[in-house]
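Note to self: keep these together.
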Amino acid sequence: MDIKILAVDDELDMEELIKQKFRKKIRNGEYNFVFAYNGVDALTKFVEYPEISLILSDINMPEMDGLTLLTKVKELKNPSLKTIIVSAYGDMENIRTAMNRGAFDFVTKPINFDDLEVTIEKTLDEIKIYRKSMKEHDQLVAIQQDLSVAREIQQSILPKEFPAFPQRKDFDIFASMDAAKSVGGDFYDFFMIDDNKLGFVIADVSGKGVPAAIFMAVSRTLIRSTALKGIPPEDCMQYSNELLAKESVNSMFVTVFYGILNLKTGELQYSNAGHNPPYILQKDGSVKTVEGTGDIVLGVMENMDYHSKSVKLNPGDTIFTFTDGITEAMDVDFNEYTDEKLIQLLKTQSGNSPKEMINNVVEDVKIFTKGAEQSDDITTLALKFLG
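Structure:
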């Protein structure tokens, strides 16, 4: 550890005594002493040797005494800089003043060098602990800064400008994602495949944090680029699965619901790769579950077959998609929000826009879980067919 010990004493023989008593530690590089002869001289040494972290200072010295030096040292606002004060035996008033001004410890004259060595070692240990904690703190700050940038990047790849297609009058769409950590594994996406077909995706990557966020970015890019080719949902899922399964690390996978809505007919063709089944909120306020396609998550095994089904949306119907961060959200007593509670709320939302619907659902979940820590990403996408 690169630490210099500044010994401050106006008695010239003190330097020789210290060098003699600690010659082995000095020779082995364990102790590295710098010497000053009063407080003023000591302050100049800080400029010359910025690595000074331990001060061994007498109290009674000319020009600037040890108590004044302590005051000056305190002004440096360096918590890792520790001072051991040296005073005559019985000079308790000055010792107490020194401790009140920030001295870490003290020894008395005549100096017992064995006691001084113990005191120096104890002080050095304290400096080591502080430096280690500061290093760990700096590392945590750096990680938090990296996570903040990662969160901004992750948010930037998700569509977030709404209304997303202000020129279109045949549908309305809204989505939101609230990560449980700085970065999350959920994602949503939507895009025009052609003038009459709208593709939309909601997905949930296994795990949390940075690994999930990276896998999320890869999955989102892969599914989007494949879907924009205009191929059927089952082919998009099959192709995406092949690539993800080959590149999957630590057995990560992603659940996906991918749908293509025909904006002329209202026909919704979809494939569900192990994701929560969405709900269709019909214009009359009834809610029905979108049937599954019996397919497994993406990224687990190669050579898997995927399937598609279709359902017709009538003008005024809304398909509400979500991740399990909604239905599995828990309150302080570990009760889950549940699909049943979500369905009951959706039944009251038929007259609302997708944005209003999502805001109401997310707010209801927050009310339900008030006081409990968010345990999973909360992601929703609602698409209303207007015809």
